[in-house]
Amino acid sequence: MPISRAARMTRTAISPRLAIRIFFNTGVNIALMDHQNANSSENWHIQTVLETGSTNADLMAAGHQGAPDRSVLRAEYQSAGRGRLDRTWEAPRGANLLVSLLFRQVPDRLHVLTQVVALAATSVAQKTCGVDAQLKWPNDILVGSEKLAGILAQAAPTDAQGKIPFVVVGIGCNIGWAPPGATSLSANGWSREVTPDEFLQLMLPEIDALLALSDDDLHKEYLRCVATVGTQVRAEMPHGEDVIGRALTVEPDGRLVVLDDCGITHRIDTADVVHLRPASD
């Protein structure tokens, strides 16, 4: 079956339970964390820099040096920003939200942190900017078929007790600019114009509220917002086979459940998922 242009623009490939990368080498200059516009909110420690290579890489390095829980690093410009599949991209200076958040209270299911950040950004886009943003499994944000934001999480290596000491979650959200094939808040007739910093400041209390939910309530909120559920999808599996069918749900462990055209149920951990069309009942 040919894949439409719209379908191609809604791909993702990631393991939701791990939507996390393990990094052992963090030789990054963390002096960036010590200057520019440092401030603190009730629960967050926020630094803004004019330019860096990657906020994720810098905050990972800062985490290894003892940066506190809920440290935040935002950049006006990233020269080596990375998204899924290690793709690099650059946004014009000051146009978009380029930020990473460090969590030392690491849940048993690591993918919860990516879900929380995605849910918070989606809520701000909807409630503040009046843009109909929706989640795409596991952690992209779309408007229609076009990508508005993406998330990349990285976990520190386990310590001597076998625990992960911290996780860094980075998000790039298109506020005032988008590359070809993607979209931005400004391109969708936002009801309120916001700067990247304002968008971040609105996200943080949303994250606090989401992390305060029970596991069951947080999972219900994710299911309420994820547009993949109920959609006809193509799941292109790592070994080359495809699963085509209706996405029924996302399980608490992060796996996508798809009922294929032969009536077989698949629980998918890792795949390149394409939204084809809304499924009819």
How would you describe what is shown here?
This protein has two domains: 5-225, 2-Layer Sandwich (BirA Bifunctional Protein, domain 2), CATH 3.30.930.10; 231-278, SH3 type barrels (Roll). The protein has helices spanning 5-8, 55-64, 111-127, 196-211, 215-225, and strands at 12-14, 20-22, 39-40, 45-49, 71-75, 97-103, 134-136, 140-143, 146-155, 167-173, 231-236, 242-250, 256-260, 265-268, 271-278. With 281 residues, it is an alpha+beta fold. Keywords: Ligase.
Please supply descriptive tags for the structure shown above:
alpha+beta; BirA Bifunctional Protein, domain 2; SH3 type barrels; 2 domains; 9-stranded mixed β-sheet; 5 helices; biotin--[biotin carboxyl-carrier protein] ligase activity; aa-tRNA-synth_II/BPL/LPL; ligase; BPL_LPL_catalytic; Biotin_CoA_COase_ligase
SSE arrangement:
Layout: H1 5-8, E1 12-14, E2 20-22, E3 39-40, E4 45-49, H2 55-64, E5 71-75, E6 97-103, H3 111-127, E7 134-136, E8 140-143, E9 146-155, E10 167-173, H4 196-211, H5 215-225, E11 231-236, E12 242-250, E13 256-260, E14 265-268, E15 271-278
Parallel strand pairs: 2-9, 4-5
Antiparallel strand pairs: 1-15, 3-4, 5-6, 6-10, 7-8, 8-9, 9-10, 11-12, 11-15, 12-13, 13-14
**Outline:** globular
Number of domains: 2
CATH class of the largest domain: Alpha Beta
Give the uncertain stretches in residue-range form. 1-40
For the sheet with most strands, the description reads: 9 strands, mixed
Distance between the termini: 21 Å
Number of helices: 5
Order of helices and strands: HEEEEHEEHEEEEHHEEEEE
Please state the CA-atom Rg, rounded to the nearest Å.
Answer: 18 Å
Beta strand count: 15
The helix content, as a percent range, equals 10-25%
CATH architecture of the largest domain: 2-Layer Sandwich
